[in-house]
Amino acid sequence: MTILLIADHDNRVLSDATGRALTALCAMDDAVHILVAGHRAGPVAESAARLCGAGRIILADDAAFAHGLAEPLAALVVSLAGDYRAIAAPATSGGKDVLPRVAALLDVMQVSDVVRIVSPDTFERPIYAGNAVAVVQSTDEKKLLTIRTSAFAAAGTIDAAVPIEEVRAPHGVWLARFEGETLSSRDRPDLASARVVVSGGRALGSAEKFQDVLGPLAERLHAAIGASRAAVDAGYAPNDLQVGQTGKVVAPDLYIALGISGAIQHLAGMKDSKIIVAINKDEDAPIFQVADYGIVGDLFEIVPELEKALG
Amino acid sequence: MKKILVPVKMVLDANARPRVRADETGIDLSGMRMSINPFCEIAVEEALRLKEAGQAEEVVIVSIGPAKAQDTLRQALAMGADRALLIQTDETVEPLAVAKLLHAVVMDEPPDLVILGKQAIDDDCNQTGQMLAALLGWPQATFASAIRAEEGRLLVTREIDAGLQTLSLPLPAIVTTDLRLNEPRHCALPNIMKARKKPLTIRMPADYGVDVRRRLKVLAVRPPSGRKPGIKVATASELVGDLRAAGLV
Ligand SMILES: Cc1cc2nc3c(=O)[nH]c(=O)nc-3n(C[C@H](O)[C@H](O)[C@H](O)COP(=O)(O)OP(=O)(O)OC[C@H]3O[C@@H](n4cnc5c(N)ncnc54)[C@H](O)[C@@H]3O)c2cc1C
């Protein structure tokens, strides 16, 4: 039996999330086919073909897939669903958008945000913002899974690429129309896969100070920048930097929280980081309960000292 | 638009700390404060704003849950919704079954737009809106941070991993809300009193002929693995020394 994994990409680059989801699925002891649905996405298919653990690549190249919209993509996945024992996607914004649509069309109850595959039908997933972990057994014949990518390592690559098979887009009338997008600049490492993340909270006080304080430190540490919801809501940082229950979930080697109180919704997105550093002027801030290293003090004084000490 | 349907869920309050039962059967909700799921509250608010802007005539709220979920519905009515429906059950109803019940409600009503929260903060599934869109064959715009009604279509800005995306949807359509869509209003006391007189209908899942049996067996619910307590360091240079020793910087 085989598993179908829906690749996450932007038509040019295969995201690291796909390889992490592949690592998770390889534990199920089945062949994994990776579906690349995109527009002029040949290079993505070629990268997918070199992921260690991929059995075959299915490429559906059509203008309908240019922006990853749920309607055509769900129709395509349903048309391919046939014999696959499981259909999975990384729990990225794209995966979360499309997979439930597929699940309903196949009459399957999806398991969201899998953090551990216990057996081919049993999975662990966080609930209540990660305050509990549920072990669930799916009784549906097909399993539909989104994979929380921060819980799994990136897949390696191989030299000999696996075959790429092309399929056609299903016919249909797609109702939602793409109008435009505003993409964040990509001059920093990707938040979801960076080894080091520097995050700022409400304490930063303005977009300028957020950039002035976090920018150089992140640069020095080759880190991605993250933010709390309060910082995003206040306009200090763009929405795609939000870490937490309802933002991105990250698990870097080092997470540095600056002026973040540590609300459970924020912890949900970073408490599986290997080492957590917190700088906060309130010694009772809950962030210190999860921090490996804490400094009590004013971040505007401590961050420059930190940069100096780093040399 | 004539009608907007807003499904809402009652959940453990976002500020309460969930207690995992010692026998691993789930979360102990007894005596805990229950509230409207924050994302659903945002959905109610957005529907009301569309109505107040003259874009819709009626806002109907529906919830699937225990008798106590009437409180959640009354809150939505106090915010300004016109009427409410409770599909009453004490069982846990999974997103797929919720979507099937909502599908039946949509057939009864039928609304021009359904606005739902993108996820419930208890099971964190993030599925129901997309599933309902699939069952209805309607377009979907998930994770909305802005909605504009324009010439019979909806322009929806969505929060995606890479930034923001804007979609244009014909009606009828499904939208799921993200946190930055709006800030829900507080209910004034007179409105809370008035809401008591607004129509609230109660039905059972069986009235809709929907099979709500669970597809996922919950084998155990456990506390997450905790973190070891850390240390406080006095200075930045001490911190850097420790991080260097650990090979992190
Ligand atoms: C449904 C729901 C979903 C949510 N999802 C998320 C989510 O995904 N991500 C998220 O982050 N939040 C989320 N939240 C919000 C969360 O509850 C908190 O409100 C938010 O995380 C607080 O952000 P903060 O820590 O930056 O701000 P605050 O809680 O205001 O903390 C600011 C901290 O900065 C410290 N401080 C102030 N000045 C200084 C200084 N000069 N130097 C050092 N420290 C200083 C203060 O002591 C304080 O601890 C969600 C909430 C809800 C209800």
From TrEMBL, chain A:
One of its GO terms (molecular function) is flavin adenine dinucleotide binding. Keywords: Electron transport, FAD, Flavoprotein, Transport. Residues 3-182 form the Electron transfer flavoprotein alpha/beta-subunit N-terminal domain. It comes from the Bacteria. Pfam families: ETF, ETF_alpha. CDD domains: ETF_alpha. FAD binds at residues 202, 228-229, 242-246, 259-266, 280. Belongs to the ETF alpha-subunit/FixB family. The electron transfer flavoprotein serves as a specific electron acceptor for other dehydrogenases. It transfers the electrons to the main respiratory chain via ETF-ubiquinone oxidoreductase (ETF dehydrogenase). This is Electron transfer flavoprotein subunit alpha. It comes from Gluconacetobacter azotocaptans.
